[in-house]
Amino acid sequence: MYIVQIASECAPAIKAGGLGDVVYGISRELESRGHTVEIILPMYDCMRYDHIWGLHDAYKDLTVPWYGGEIHCSVYCGWVHGQVCFFIEPHSDDRFFQRGCYYGCGDDNMRFAFFSKAAIEFLLRSNKRPDILHCHDWQTGLVPVMLFEIYKYQWMEYQRVCFTIHNFKHQGMGGSEILRATGLNREAYYFSDQRLQDNSNPFALNFIKGGIVYSNYVTTVSPQHAWEASNTEVGCGLGHTLYLNQHKFKGVLNGIDYDFWSPETDRYIPTNYSSATLAEKAQSKKALRSRLLLREVDRPIIAYIGRLDDQKGVHLVHHAMYYALSRSAQFVLLGSPTEAVISDWFWHEKRFLNDNSDVHLELSFNEELSHLIYAGADMIVVPSNYEPCGLTQMIGLKYGTVPIVRGVGGLVNTVFDRDYDRTHPPEQRNGYVFYQTDFTALESAMDRAIGLWENYPEQFEELVIQGMSYDYSWKNPATEYLEIYESIRYQW
Length: 492
Hints:
The chain is of the alpha/beta class and 492 residues long. It folds into 2 domains: 2-255 and 475-489, Rossmann fold; 275-468, Glycogen Phosphorylase B (Rossmann fold, 3-Layer(aba) Sandwich). The chain contains 17 helices and 17 strands. The protein has helices at residues 18-32, 108-125, 142-149, 176-182, 187-190, 207-214, 223-231, 239-244, 281-292, 314-326, 340-352, 367-376, 392-398, 409-414, 439-455, 457-468, 475-489, and strands at residues 2-6, 36-42, 52-66, 69-80, 83-91, 132-136, 160-165, 173-174, 205-206, 217-220, 249-251, 301-305, 330-334, 359-362, 379-382, 402-406, 432-434. The strands form 3 sheets. It has a 9-stranded mixed β-sheet, sandwiched between helices. A 6-stranded parallel β-sheet has the order 14-13-12-15-16-17, with helices on both faces. Strands 8-9 form a two-stranded antiparallel sheet. A hairpin with a 2-residue loop joins strand 4 (69-80) and strand 5. Helix 2 packs across helix 3 (142-149) and helix 9 (281-292) crosses helix 12 (367-376). The mean pLDDT is 96.
């Protein structure tokens, strides 16, 4: 099968969050099974060129229709850790992807509307006719719209689209200018509840809604999140649209790349280990303390790795830190604040706790350090307000670091409470789960985890080994996606 991924990220060359990891991971797994996979991406000026090999001209003279005129583009091809990627570079005064950032510009909707248009034009002009276009998030939500309304009449009538929504919070909005720019035009037609009109704002077009309505199949990144998006406020206003399209919507759990995330081969930790050599994990704990100037003491290390924002339950992250210290545990935080008020808050805490040798706050992201924290910590907290899938808890399990998670989204599809889970026998449970967003619920779960570490170390080790036995690689998700591709491949 010939599959083209269209996305705004592909790790490690372009990575702002989990989307980049997913695009790379699923592509690599599909290709390993004998399928042809190519990835189309914007050519950002700030992407990691050191992770791209053999970058060369692929299509020098791509002209993309835009606002009744056209924009000239160059398309480059390179390999991102073995994956074939095409990078689209527009030559325009708009400087769409020469902003020194991936997202956060006032015209992001127009930037990615153009990218979507250019991606299809590239496929059309280069005579590429994939069986499946797999599009990701709002940035590519217009691809299936334009494919169905324009390009199927230009010799692309056999291409089918799978559209994956990684985060319903960010939906992509625009007005009639989007229609004029892309050549969709007909305002009355698209400003319809059955097409692109936003469910809450009748004067806005919704990119993700367009992707849901026009795609042959729609997925999100865990079964639980699919249910939440359809039935709760997590769908951010798209619940009714998902209900109308429930026949082609499901949750497929993300995977992680065990070639990159595995203590057995990890080059960023001092000593490799597995469940059979778990005692070697202590070397990473010792190295972590040494690097972060934590005191050497027979106490557990509890970690948090991830963004510091409302989605991640930042108030609970803060409380987890102080509760860990109150229980004589140590706490390590690695995360970037996404808002000024959160940044000020945690920088204040960092200065306040600067002389405390039981805590370290690293208010940035450091890939190398994250590996050492996963390996060196005993437990990892993931107290998200909502979590479409979550990779942190799955990585933690692989490294023998017991997850303490809030019971939402993909967290409940991957972590099963040691004491209270009734869907898995005791020998298959792997962590701790709490459900409310208050401090008491978090403390209860942390108390149970710390108590087991303190009082029943052999049982804690059993829990660690049970967690390490889980396979959250891309093997199972890739099988599900191939079944979806096959189901829509010959759909008329």
